[in-house]
From TrEMBL:
It comes from Marivibrio halodurans. It holds the Pfam family Rhodanese. This is Rhodanese-like domain-containing protein. Residues 19-125 form the Rhodanese domain.
Length: 139
């Protein structure tokens, strides 16, 4: 298993997107998550997030075309690529997959979009993109 470039908390990911004009944020959650939970909003940076499912909705099967789809979006393997999911697990696997495909700067946005579960087993209150106060919109 290849080592990816590392984990970034959501605010560090935002700072990288601010400072690295070529960097790309790819949200690897499912279509349902994008539509019902929301998506990162990069419009304050005059940019857009990209969306490629790591697992297919609704059955959760692996997206066998994931690497191919990402390489069409980001053809240059030297461009920093930041991966985001719900909590940082799928995005870590995505960062590993792209690193294994020859990409040099793949990052996992640790905590993800919704963060970890709180004491009541709910997401969206402990860590994550939304809790960090970063821009997002309903999908």
């Amino acid at each position: 298993m290849a080592d990816y470039a590392g984990d970034l908390d959501p605010k560090a990911a935002w700072k990288m997107l601010e400072s690295e004009p070529a960097a790309v944020l790819i949200d690897v959650r499912t279509l349902a998550e994008w539509q019902y939970v929301g998506v990162p909003d990069l419009s304050p940076l005059d940019r857009k997030a990209e969306f490629v499912e790591w697992q297919r909705f609704p059955d959760g099967s692996p997206n066998a075309e994931f690497v191919e789809q990402v390489t069409r979006i980001v053809p240059d393997p030297e461009v920093p690529v930041l991966f985001l999911c719900r909590s940082g697990v799928r995005s870590m696997h995505a960062a590993i997959a792209l690193t294994e495909a020859g990409y040099a700067h793949c990052y996992n946005v640790a905590e993800g979009f919704e963060g970890d579960k709180d004491m009541a087993q709910h997401r969206g209150t402990v860590g994550g993109w939304k809790v960090a106060g970063l821009p997002w919109q309903q999908g």
